[in-house]
Amino acid sequence: MELAGLFNYFFFSICLAGIYAVMALGLNVQWGYTGILNIGVAAFFQIGAYTTALLTSPDNPAHIGGFDLPGTFAQLVGGEGAFLGQLVGQASILIGLLGGMAVAALLGFLIGWITIGLRSDYLAIASIGISEIVRLFIQNEGWLTNGTRGIAGIPRPGIGLYNGSDFLEFMVLVVVAIGVVYVLIERAYRAPWGRVLRAVRENENAVLAAGKDVTWFRLQAFVFGCTIMGLAGGLYAHFTTFVSPEAFRPDLTTFLVWVMLIAGGSGNNRGAILGAFAIWAVWSGSEFITSAFPVEYVTQIAPLRVLLIGVILQVVLLTRQQGLLPERPPKPLVTDDEAPNRSG
Amino acid sequence: MIELIQLVLYGVVLGSIITLGAIGVSLVFGILRFAHFAHGDMMTLGAYFAFVGYVTIGLPFWLAFPVAAAAAAGVAVLIDQTIYKRLRRSDPVILLISAFGMALILRSLVQIIWGPSNLVYASGIQLPIRIGDLRIKEDHFYIVGGALVLVIGLHLFLTRTTMGKAMRAMADNVDLARISGVNTEKVVIWTWVIAGVMAAAAGIFLAMDTRLHPVMGWRILLSVFAAAIVGGIGRPYGAIAGGMVIGISEEVSTLFINPSYKAAVSFAILVAVLIYKPTGIVGARR
Asked: Which residues 6+ apart lie within 8 Å of A242 measured at CB?
């Protein structure tokens, strides 16, 4: 492989692993912080991807939209030919991503509003239902999603500063997204809000006794996590420029994100990012092994990779449940030794 | 009207399959207190085991069936002893996540061994028997009859044998059962044996009704859980009522909604029961 090809592959990998990292961060807010067991990660990811796709792809009579945001905005300031037009068009990608996040958040709110009060194992069961329904919806509602033919022509952001790689500029966008999400949720983790979430995870009744609205906090955390998953979906749509039901393997996506978070360290955002890159490395590295087999065996050998990830999960659960980077909650401002003697 | 009766009949067939799966989920929850997410894929595995016995080796079906059930029970016990047993001290949700991983492991194994495409036990189309305007396939009698035999067998096991009584005692109160001298580890193994046998039977019947596919069990898992919860999770008898409610509702719903959205019906019933009567329609322990 040439050096340029190698670099391109590297950028490609960072993009894809980074999108998974964003999802893992979203799941961390739900599971790591709050203890909400969401087995429907892929549902919010897909919703984000489809919304962003519809907002930014060119008009297609086969389905609603697309609304071609970049084109429309570029027209407003002198067309796509002009530098300003191109810049504004590119900036409108952000609106597409925000749209994906908003719809994922809305779905999360509706579902959370009904199910968030359930015990964690019941919520997990309900969330497979959500995942299944979203999958069926995307497959069957062709007027909106173009069914199995999918939505094509989603623009990949980039202003062509560097022509050596298709993915370099997009990689920067993904890294920025990870950075923004990381800073935001890390801040939330250390804030009183995050403290309440951790308390909900550890002991719901104690939080209730302290006068907090547990259900409301759980709902907030759930919707927050879903929004981040929607962002990951939007990024994915721009990355692949094409979405269709076959492009997603919902149960596999959900599973990978879970293994990433647990292997990296639930509750630790750096752990979530590390886990995403580590598991993705194993996942994509194992493709080289299976591709060494003759073509006629490929369909049968491919699931070996899933098996490998499944075994990794079991090993982590059996030997290191806290993950690579265990959670480190902030130290209390006043420790027991320093605490003033209240009885005095 | 005739259409409705026809759909109810299909619902009873589907309900029998779901019931057998739900009994296992319910028993495991009652004894081990976790939702077994790999149960659907255990059904799949059982169905493929029967495929090996019946099609690959060429055993008669009445022999291939118990052999496959025994093999599935063996796998269930093996998984429990190698993985779940070591996680029993952890929070039950850790077991749930482990089971979710196990589901993917079993599914990939099925795909590696038997390939990703559809398989059938017997090729060719079975002509339905006509009773008036109703159409029933011969297989449907075997499915409902087989489920009935298994459920009666389970009932006798739970009420007449010492192990069955120990199992019910442990589901009621683990500590009390242990103090009374119940060998809890042995009860756990028997729980997996029964769950495995029931899951294999459910898988085989599902494959008879449709066809074998690596995700057949995962796709029906939601309905199985819904049935277990509607019947009151932890109560194997409730699973029968739950299975019928879910099976019949799913089939009859096709009169009103797009059949692709059958899963949404289970989901709606599941959520409604969880919110309004979390102990299940039969009334269950907490």
From this structure: A150, A151, A152, A153, A154
Mean pLDDT by 10 residues, chain B (286 residues): 92 97 95 94 98 95 96 98 94 93 96 92 83 87 96 94 92 88 93 97 96 95 95 87 96 92 90 84 57
Which residues neighbour B9 within 8 Å (Cβ) at sequence distance 6 or greater?
A: B134, B136, B140
For residue A75, tell me if it sits in a domain: yes
Contact A56, A96 (CB under 8 A): yes
A-chain CB neighbours of B92 within 8 Å are: 121
Quote ipTM for the complex.
0.93
Residue B184 is which amino acid? Answer: T
Torsion of CA B58, B62, B63, B65, to 10 degrees: 90
- Do strands B129-131 and B134-136 pair parallel, antiparallel, or not at all (unpaired)? antiparallel
Q: What is the pLDDT of residues A21-51, one digit of tens each?
A: 999 999 999 999 999 999 999 999 999 999 9
Q: What domain count does chain A have? A: 1
For residues B57 and B66, give the distance between their C-alpha atoms in angstroms, rounded to a whole number: 14
**Residue B120 DSSP symbol:** -
How many CA atoms within 13 Å lie on the side-chain side of A66?
Answer: 26
Per-domain residue ranges of chain B: 2-116+138-276
First to last CA, chain A: 75
Distance CA(A70)–CA(A87), nearest Å, equals 9
Instruction: Compute φ and ψ for B131, nearest 5 degrees.
Output: -120, 100
Lookup: tokens for B269: 């019933």
Q: Which residues of A touch B229 (CB under 8 A)?
A: 122, 125
Confirm whether A332 is domain-assigned.
no
Partner residues linked to B119 by β-bridges: B212
B275 touches chain A (CB under 8 A): yes
Contact (CB<8Å) B105/A122: no
Write out chain A residues lying below 8 Å of B102, CB-based.
310, 314
A336 part of a folded domain: no
Measured N-to-C along each axis, helices B92-114 and A250-264 cross at an angle, to the nearest 10 degrees, of: 130
Cis ω for the linkage preceding B234 (within 30 of 0): no
Kindly give the residue spans of alpha helices, DSSP state H, lying in chain B: 2-32, 39-51, 61-79, 85-87, 92-114, 138-160, 162-172, 174-179, 184-209, 216-230, 236-253, 262-276
Token pair recorded at residue B282: 């039969």
User: Is residue A105 one of the residues assigned to a domain?
Assistant: yes
For residue A200, the SS3 value is helix
| Full domain range(s) for residue A50 | 11-249
User: Domain B2-116+138-276 falls in which CATH fold?
Assistant: ABC transporter involved in vitamin B12 uptake, BtuC (1.10.3470)
Once rounded to an integer, what is the mean pLDDT over residues A130-155? 92
Burial class (CB in 10 A: 0-12, 13-18, 19+), A141: middle
What is the least distance, in Å, from the CA of B133 to any CA of chain A? 31
d(CA A136, CA B167): 39
For A94-111, the pLDDT digits (tens) are 999 999 999 999 999 999
Does residue A82 sit in helix, strand or coil? coil
- Compute the distance between CA of residue B17 and CA of residue B32 in angstroms, rounded to an integer: 23
**Any idea which residue has 């699931």 for tokens?**
A303
